[in-house]
């Protein structure tokens, strides 16, 4: 099976590419899409560059990849509303259109986000919860999600949506809360600083390791009954537990054997989404997936990467 991973050079894309390549006896050939050329692609992985905002380049990508399956991870999580809508909605529309005309049988898993739910009244949050995004990123991902599932309803495309909750894992950028905390802990160990700088410590999130998410997406993508059991549906991918930022710090204190002082702003910024926790039963029942990395293991692995020279 030829699998195209858009955004394959990104954080989650890298983990998914490695997961797909490691599957024994599946005969998976991985084609990694990147907006910019990857300098040193992994052995056995074909890298194709394309700007998904250009329909012609997207058509050429699909022709060259000739995929049997597509994991669509490309997009952006920072920027203006216009930039977010372009990268997450317009680009997805181009890809789905190209696949309809050039690879109509290709199954597709589009990566959504728990940001689509916003401050949901459900706990845990099921896939049937209303999409009530609290920010521009969530709005863009909700629109992308609706577009993807409309492709199934209107055109019969075999498309499913994966909704990961808050990603963590080795190699995560400091732009995200756990990546920032781990990066600062490593900096304290190196004597670069002596205190953590955080906006707040009370919000709660369902942190799920990117390696577990990659495994879940691969199980969806390669499901032997994809058309009947996956297409047209959305799937939460989360740990099913929530942890506060303060609890993340406590885990790191246990891992490192030391305590950390925290500087907080005099007037903390408002928290649009105080808490989120996934109901992950559908992905577990459909694929047999379950999360394997504990929060402690994820943070330990993240710190090991952050400590490297």
Number of individual domains:
2
CATH topology of the largest domain: Rossmann fold
- Give the overall shape, derived from the CA principal axes: globular
Q: Could you give the distance between the termini?
A: 39 Å
CATH architecture of the largest domain: 3-Layer(aba) Sandwich
Helix content: 40-55%
How many beta strands in the DSSP annotation?
13
Q: On the 0-100 scale, what is the average pLDDT?
A: 95
Largest sheet: 7 strands, parallel
Give a quick precis of the structure.
This protein has 309 residues and is α/β, with parallel strands linked by helices.
Tell me the layout of helices and strands.
Blueprint: E1 2-6, H1 11-22, E2 29-34, E3 46-49, H2 55-65, E4 69-72, H3 81-102, E5 107-111, H4 136-155, E6 159-164, E7 166-168, H5 177-189, E8 196-197, E9 204-205, E10 207-209, H6 210-221, H7 226-229, E11 234-237, E12 243-244, H8 245-256, E13 262-263, H9 281-287, H10 295-306
Parallel strand pairs: 1-2, 1-4, 2-3, 4-5, 5-6, 6-11, 7-10, 8-13
Antiparallel strand pairs: 9-12
Helix pairs in contact: 1-6, 2-3, 3-4, 5-8, 5-10, 8-10
């Amino acid at each position: 099976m030829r699998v195209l991973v858009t955004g394959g050079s990104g954080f989650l894309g890298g983990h998914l590419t490695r997961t797909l390549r490691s599957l024994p006896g599946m005969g998976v050939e991985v084609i990694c899409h990147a907006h910019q050329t990857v300098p040193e692609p992994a052995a056995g992985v074909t890298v194709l560059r394309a700007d998904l905002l250009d329909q012609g380049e997207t058509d050429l990508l699909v022709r060259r990849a000739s995929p049997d399956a597509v994991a669509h991870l490309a997009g952006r999580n920072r920027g203006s509303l216009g930039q977010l809508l372009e990268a997450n909605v317009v680009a997805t529309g181009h890809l789905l259109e190209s696949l309809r005309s050039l690879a109509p049988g290709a199954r597709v898993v589009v990566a959504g986000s728990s940001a689509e739910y916003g401050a949901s009244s459900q706990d845990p949050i099921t896939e049937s919860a209303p999409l009530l995004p609290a920010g521009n990123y969530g709005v863009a991902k909700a629109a992308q999600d609706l577009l993807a599932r409309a492709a199934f309803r209107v055109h019969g495309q075999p498309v499913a949506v994966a909704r990961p909750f808050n990603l963590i894992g080795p190699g995560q950028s400091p732009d995200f809360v756990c990546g920032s905390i781990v990066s600062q802990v490593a900096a304290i160990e190196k004597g670069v600083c002596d205190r953590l700088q955080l906006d707040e410590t009370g919000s709660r999130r369902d942190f799920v390791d990117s390696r577990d998410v990659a495994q879940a997406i691969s199980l969806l993508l390669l499901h032997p009954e994809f058309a009947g059991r996956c297409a047209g549906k959305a799937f939460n991918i989360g740990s099913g537990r929530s942890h506060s930022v303060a609890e993340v710090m406590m885990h790191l204190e246990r891992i490192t054997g030391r305590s950390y002082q925290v500087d907080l702003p005099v007037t903390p910024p408002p928290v649009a989404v105080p808490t989120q926790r996934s109901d992950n039963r559908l992905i577990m029942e459909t694929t047999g997936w379950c999360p394997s990395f504990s929060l402690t293991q994820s943070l330990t692995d993240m710190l090991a990467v952050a400590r490297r020279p």
